[in-house]
Amino acid sequence: MIIAKSKKFRDQHGKILLEGRRLITDALRAGAKLETLFFSNMDSLKELPVEKLKHAKLIKVKFEEIKMWSDLVTPQGTLGIFLKPEHSKMKYPLQKEHTLPLFLICDNIRDPGNLGTILRSAVAAGCSKILVTKGCVDVWEPKVLRAGMGAHFRIPVLSNLEWEVVHNYLSTSTRVHVADHSCPVEENPESLCTCDQRGASPRAVEYKESDSKDDGREFLLSLPKVDAQSCYQAWARQHTAIVIGGETHGLSLEALTLVEKTRGKRLYVPMAPGVDSLNSAMAACVLLFEGRRQLMTGLK
Questions:
Q1: Which side of the chain, N or C, has fewer Cβ within a 10 Å radius?
Q2: What separation in angstroms does the CA of 33 have from each of 16, 53, 54, 56?
Q3: pLDDT in tens, 44-82
Q4: Tell me: the pLDDT tens digits for 237-295?
């Protein structure tokens, strides 16, 4: 069980560990394949969809052992080892009826709780697909699964993607926007952002680096030019994607480049003066539901 919780186990064997009635039930109903189920009593077993357990190995163990293996304060008495789900083979019965042409792209999100909360918010907002790029925490990490509350089994979650292939999962008409705490000076005079004192649109920033071994020659790096606007101004339309970056490492150059190529915007949430930024999960929630509102209004 200790090995089954590790990323090494997940990567080498293509298996994941799920705990609790709700998470296991969601996985089974979505079509995930259960290999082994550990349970402590028959009552906990009856709470699961029994017809989905026919081909799994069922092992009854003492509740004390479940408590020893569990990461929960109050274990429910069930743990299951599943084959790692492939999104193309999963069933998402509510997806077509309740989702919008809104996509989420996760960039450099390293905190498991934040990633799980973001995935849960994306499902609630009606996103149709979630793309998780390489550099983010593993989406099948137990803390991500717990915070996600079944989000992994409600819409396609494609993980560990290289930025070079992200565009393959978006239509050519998709406009990609990025969450950014920077905003024009006129909106928040105390905020630091890459714009001039008149509140003009952000400009490309040039970084200079010198290498003593290279006779002091300078290398210039220009960041993509992406305008900033309030998230409450119009930005969501048919085929829209939002990039959410991590709090520690921030946005990657690849994310900004994709936003520039699709003529997207840097979206900020207007805040009271003196507030530096929002938690990434909270910012994602605000932007996703604002995107939902705009799309729902536009579709009427």
A1: C
A2: 10, 9, 11, 8
A3: 888 899 899 999 999 999 999 999 998 888 898 999 999
A4: 889 999 999 887 788 999 999 999 999 999 999 999 888 888 999 999 999 999 999 99
d(CA 285, CA 124): 9
Residue 231 · residue 268 · CB < 8 Å: yes
CA 19 to chain centre: 21
Residues 137, 144 contacting (CB under 8 angstroms):
yes
Residue 22, both tokens: 């709700």
Query: DSSP string covering 184-235, please?
Result: -TTT-TT---SS-TT-PPP---EEEEE-GGGTT-EEEEEPP---EEETTSS-
d(CA 140, CA 142): 6
Residue 61's nearest CA partner among 80, 82, 47, 48 is 80
CB atoms within 10 A of CB 177: 24
Per-residue confidence (pLDDT) for residue 181, from 0 to 100: 78
Q: Which of 177, 187, 183 is nearest to 291 (CA)?
A: 177
β pairing state of 240-245 and 175-179: parallel
Taking residues 117-145, report their average pLDDT. Answer: 96
Look-up of token digits 């520690």:
248
Rounded CA separation 283/279 (Å): 6
Q: Evaluate whether 117 touches 51 at the Cβ level (below 8 Å).
A: no
Cα(240)–Cα(229) distance, integer angstroms: 16
- pTM for the model stands at 0.85
User: Please, what is the average pLDDT of the chain?
Assistant: 86
What's the sign of the alpha-carbon dihedral 131, 137, 139, 145? negative
Cα separation, 80 vs 33, in Å, equals 10
Cβ(15)–Cβ(57) below 8 Å: no
Q: What is the DSSP letter of 136?
A: B
